[in-house]
Amino acid sequence: MKEATKILHSIPVDPLTGAISTPIYQTSTFVQESPGVHKGYDYARSNNPTRKVLEDLIATLENGSNGYAFGSGLAAIDAVVKLLKSGDEIIAVDDIYGGAFRLFTHIYEKFGIKVTYVDATDAQNVANAISSQTKLIWIESPTNPTLKIADIAAISKIAKAVGALLCVDNTFASPAAQKPIDLGADLVIHSATKYLAGHSDIIAGLVVTNTAVLGEKIKFIQNASGAILGPWDSWLAIRGIETLNLRIKQHSENAQKIAEYLLQNDLVKNVYYPGLPQDKNHEIATQQMKYFGGIISFDLKVDDKSIASEIVSGTKYFKLAESLGGLKSLICLPCEMTHKSIPRELRYQSGVTDSLIRLSVGLEDADDLIEDLKGVLGKVTKNLTITTK
Ligand SMILES: *Cc1c(COP(=O)(O)O)cnc(C)c1O
């Protein structure tokens, strides 16, 4: 079965009524025939039929064993870290999502979990950081916002050799573009807030495990800590995932055209997009990704925050906002928004300059999006020429 068919037909018809759209089971408890005798559901923190459809769906799409839905991407990350105990160590990708960095540093370090950050574009850096206490390796690929790619299969071998778990945050790619479990990952997490739900209307997180044994452990944590996704938001996530394949294909096609346009604009210095043949991550991206996704970053030859600020405030279709993965295009200035809390020197080390701009390319017509960028870049270039004369 091909991916587009698999997505749609992994969502079951409701067994009770035949409803083709999954019913929203808005209930906290389930009536039992006699104590402990019920239809598989007793209390909705432990299990909810709507949430279960979403959980089984994401497990299927990621070619995993079990799936679990949480109230946010961060709650999903939190559930995975709770597999560890005091004294254990994590090796994480250095340009990790800021919220994950905050959780690791300000919550888990005080419980005695140490985190080492490495540039995971070279798997050898991960191997070099391994200690006898390493229990979890945490990868994002592509990363935010400079779209670095990690060789998931190579890192999985390093993890397996020392008995550590490999977790991949697959938010930027989505399972339509990349399947980390097929490449050897033990766990996949998602901020379903982004491409999976896809409509900028909910906050949600998912965890997928490669085995039922690991699944039971996450299930225990989900029920014990209680950060579950509610039935309405589960339904919206299912509804979003139905069109995932189509959306990722189009997001990627639009992004490819825009990245190629940006490459030949005179004001632009670097374009970060793994779909560009000249991108340094292109080869490994081609091996492990089916589509290159909808996120592009670029910076300017004039590395000036106020000029970059003028650009992100001046587009018509690209709306100035944080987040990504929705239908409408978004633009942001990481140094003032998503990456503001990172010291300037550290930011520059990972390529996040004052003029770096991130695009979440939406589903508008690519020609209109290019016109939009052309307009604002042209205006800024003209003003620069006037002032330098
Ligand atoms: C947004 C995001 C998260 C956090 O997800 P929330 O749903 O906002 O809690 C984690 N990882 C990545 C890569 C993200 O983009």
Describe this structure in words.
The chain is α/β, with parallel strands linked by helices. It folds into two domains: 3-241, Type I PLP-dependent aspartate aminotransferase-like (Major domain) (Aspartate Aminotransferase, domain 2); 245-388, Alpha-Beta Complex (Aspartate Aminotransferase, domain 1). The protein is built from 13 helices and twelve strands. The strands form two sheets. A seven-stranded mixed beta sheet has the order 1-7-6-5-4-2-3, sandwiched between helices. It is globular and about 85 Å long. 47% of the residues are buried. Bound molecules: pyridoxal-5'-phosphate (PLP). Pyridoxal-5'-phosphate binds next to helix 3.
Give unreliable regions as ranges.
Answer: none
**SSE order, one letter for each helix or strand:** HHEHEHEHEHEEEHHHEHEHEEHEH
Which class best fits the helix and strand makeup? alpha/beta
Ligand list: pyridoxal-5'-phosphate
> Quick check: average pLDDT?
96
Q: What CATH architecture of the largest domain do you see? A: 3-Layer(aba) Sandwich
Q: How would you write the strand order of the largest sheet? A: 1-7-6-5-4-2-3
Report helical residue fraction.
25-40%
Distance between the termini: 62 Å
Q: What do we call the CATH homologous superfamily of the largest domain?
A: Type I PLP-dependent aspartate aminotransferase-like (Major domain)
Number of E-state strands: 12
The count of helical stretches stands at: 13
**CATH topology heading of the largest domain:** Aspartate Aminotransferase, domain 2
The proportion of residues in beta strands is 5-15%
Q: State the CATH class of the largest domain.
A: Alpha Beta
In total, the number of domains comes to 2
Largest sheet: 7 strands, mixed
Task: Give me the Rg, rounded.
Answer: 22 Å
Overall 3D geometry?
globular
